[in-house]
Write a structure and sequence with these properties.
Length: about 280
């Protein structure tokens, strides 16, 4: 009878949980929802109600929230690296490497934070909600999918400064200073960074839509990864020195397109240009 009365109560009155040590899915102990409890719960339940009304999107949202979103973000990340490689911008490649490392570090840190917070999955606290993905027994806060979204997005936003698109800070002996004056961010990179922001935010939305996380979980993961990537990005001077060492070697192809001696790049500082003196000498001959 008590159970029937609870079911008939309004959703928000019935499902606003308090911080308490409870047993969740598969016997996992933790707290029901982290602060702000009311906001987290109300937004989650409202979005879950919206999910029930949009059954036509369930297939796509399930796929996107599970693997398509991270794959799309990774594809954009690789595309930006390809642009940097083709334009012979090894410093960009170095910064992207740091962004990838920062994202991995954030994923590891996420595990520590999750076990410290011990927030149960929303469907453990609200067993009657619609869940479009497989129910798991791990903790909910922060969302690891949003870690990927925040880390990769922050990595690309760090590239929007023109200074990083210089070929190098100083010439390297034995290698032409190709594209040293190219400081403008390529338009395609700006477009890809914007696409990455949209894809990342949509992935965060999708994780709540499918019932796997509270809104606070995805916001925390996104911000945590962004902060870690920015901090790891402070190591860029070391990364720039590393690519300066790598470039003249056979491994330079890993960070930039090979320079053809027969067809020097138009932006090359080493390319011979016709000057008034050389033209005058040719005329006298």
């Amino acid at each position: 009878m008590d159970h029937l009365a609870a079911v008939q109560m309004p959703p928000r009155a019935r499902l606003v949980p308090l911080l308490a040590d409870v047993r969740g899915v598969h016997g996992v102990h933790g707290v029901r929802v982290l602060p702000p409890q009311g906001l987290n719960t109300s937004i989650y339940l409202d979005l879950n109600h919206f999910s029930r009304q949009t059954a036509w999107a369930h297939g796509f949202m399930h796929t996107y929230a599970l693997w398509l979103g991270p794959v799309a973000l990774a594809a954009v990340f690789v595309a930006v690296f390809a642009v940097a490689w083709w334009r012979r911008a090894p410093r960009v490649a170095a910064l992207l490497f740091l962004g990838g490392v920062g994202t991995i570090v954030a994923l590891g840190l996420n595990q520590l934070v999750a076990h410290a917070a011990k927030e149960l999955r929303p469907y453990a606290t609200h067993p009657h909600v619609l869940v479009l993905v497989t129910r798991t027994s791990d903790y909910s806060f922060p969302s690891d999918h949003s870690i990927v979204a925040g880390g990769l997005t922050a990595s690309l936003l760090l590239l929007l400064g023109g200074e990083v698109w210089r070929h190098r800070r100083r010439p390297v002996v034995g290698l032409a200073d190709v594209g040293a004056n190219r400081t403008r961010v390529p338009g395609v990179v700006v477009a890809l960074a914007a696409v990455n922001v949209v894809l990342g935010l949509f992935l965060c939305f999708a994780r709540v839509y499918v019932g796997a996380h509270y809104p606070g979980d995805v916001v925390a993961g996104y911000l945590l990864a962004s902060a870690v990537v920015v901090l790891v990005g402070l190591l860029r001077p070391l990364a720039y020195r590393a690519v300066d060492v790598i470039e003249p070697t056979i491994f330079g192809v890993l960070v930039r397109r090979p320079v053809s001696a027969a067809a020097p790049d138009r932006g090359s500082g080493a390319m011979l240009r016709s000057t008034p003196d050389t033209r005058r000498q040719g005329h006298l001959q």
